[in-house]
């Protein structure tokens, strides 16, 4: 008995009364004779011994069944499922926006459009507030050689409100430095900032040093020619509104050598997005032509990966961005082999308050004599 295990209830064969026909006789206990009749089904029906009808088993539909149903009906079985959330209850329609919510959304939209329209050239009026800590000097000055600027003619393109331009004018003693920007408001702020860089003994008349009245005449009379010239700060600096990118290459024929150093710091991305590959090349051609032999072009190019975010500011910028083939990585080869610069000195990356402003600075040297027999732009 120890080796015998009685099957459990689940293992037993179940018997039902419908497995056997009721009644019968001693000679025919199983009513086999019924099968020999002409119509056994009728007799079974009369006696009530018909076998029960087979009931199809209920099972869960599989993915294959759903696909078969979809082929037959042409409708996806998942359509209703997607109309419900993850709790299984029907999705609720979002309530209509109130008037205050609509006004707030419209205000945000108009504010974004105004921002993109105003600052499409990278002319941010709080640029230095983001780049520098309060009271901190621009760290790019530490990588510059003072001899490049001392008693030289300097041009700073995209000077913004003039913090770097003013620092060079005061600390590096250039003969003359001109800061230009496409934004007239920034130029106005830069001119007013001159007085903040003056020493206490510098005489100030109104918003500008008193010497400007003698050197430039009345500030409002912009057409009046300068009356005298001084290389001492603040007489060696001025700011002017100007777009440096010319409309076409034919205008480059009018350019003559004028400067010993041209600064183009953190502006190549904005030139590229607004004027495309042609505008970028034209910018480099003009800078080369406007440098004296032996002069330097100092650029701080932004990486191409940073273009995409600002390209969304307008449809025009987005279109120009999609057509760019002349990438920042191509600048060095173009400036040396095509434009005619002699060499490049890589100063590395200068520090900044934000990591996004840590960009490499390259200095391109214009040869004293042209590389070819033909005299290119910028040589006379």
From TrEMBL:
The keyword DNA-binding does not apply. Residues 77-94 have a biased composition (Basic residues). It comes from the Eukaryota. GO terms for biological process: methylation. Residues 62-73 have a biased composition (Basic and acidic residues). One of its GO terms (molecular function) is RNA methyltransferase activity. The keyword Kinase does not apply. SUPFAM superfamilies: S-adenosyl-L-methionine-dependent methyltransferases. Its EC number is 2.1.1.-. Pfam families: Bin3, PrmA. Residues 138-369 form the Bin3-type SAM domain. Keywords: Methyltransferase, S-adenosyl-L-methionine, Transferase. It is an enzyme of class 2 (transferase). Residues 1-106 are annotated as: Disordered. Belongs to the methyltransferase superfamily. This is RNA methyltransferase. It comes from Caenorhabditis briggsae.
């Amino acid at each position: 008995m120890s080796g015998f295990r009685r099957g459990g209830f689940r293992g037993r064969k179940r018997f039902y009364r419908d497995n056997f026909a009721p009644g019968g006789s001693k000679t025919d206990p199983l009513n086999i004779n019924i099968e020999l009749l002409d119509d056994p089904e009728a007799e079974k029906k009369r006696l009530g011994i018909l076998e029960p009808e087979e009931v199809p088993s209920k099972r869960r539909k599989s993915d294959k069944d759903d696909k078969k149903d979809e082929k037959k009906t042409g409708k996806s079985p998942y359509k209703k499922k997607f109309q419900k959330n993850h709790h299984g209850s029907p999705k609720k329609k979002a309530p209509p926006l109130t008037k205050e919510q609509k006004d707030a959304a419209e205000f945000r939209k108009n504010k974004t459009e105004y921002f993109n329209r105003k600052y499409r050239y990278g002319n941010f009026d709080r640029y230095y507030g983001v780049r520098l800590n309060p009271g901190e000097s621009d760290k790019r000055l530490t990588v510059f050689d003072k001899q490049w600027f001392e008693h030289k003619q300097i041009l700073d393109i995209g000077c913004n409100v003039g913090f770097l331009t003013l620092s060079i004018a005061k600390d590096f003693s250039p003969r003359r430095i001109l800061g230009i920007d496409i934004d007239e408001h920034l130029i106005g702020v830069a001119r007013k900032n001159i007085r903040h860089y003056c020493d206490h003994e510098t005489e100030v008349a109104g918003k500008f040093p008193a010497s400007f009245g003698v050197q430039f005449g009345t500030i409002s009379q912009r057409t009046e020619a300068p009356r005298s010239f001084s290389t001492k700060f603040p007489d060696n600096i001025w700011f002017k509104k100007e777009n440096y990118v010319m409309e076409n290459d034919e205008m480059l024929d009018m350019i003559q050598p004028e400067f010993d150093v041209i600064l183009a710091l953190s502006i190549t991305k904005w030139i590229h997005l607004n004027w495309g590959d042609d505008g970028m090349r034209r910018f480099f051609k003009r800078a080369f032509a406007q440098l004296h032999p032996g002069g330097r072009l100092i650029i701080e190019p932004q990486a191409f990966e940073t273009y995409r975010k600002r390209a969304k500011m307008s449809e025009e910028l987005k279109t120009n961005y999609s057509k760019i083939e002349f990438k920042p990585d191509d600048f060095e080869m173009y400036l040396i082999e095509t434009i005619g610069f002699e060499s490049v000195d890589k100063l590395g990356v200068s520090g900044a308050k934000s990591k996004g402003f840590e960009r490499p600075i390259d200095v391109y040297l214009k040869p004293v004599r042209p590389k070819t027999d033909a005299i290119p732009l910028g040589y006379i």
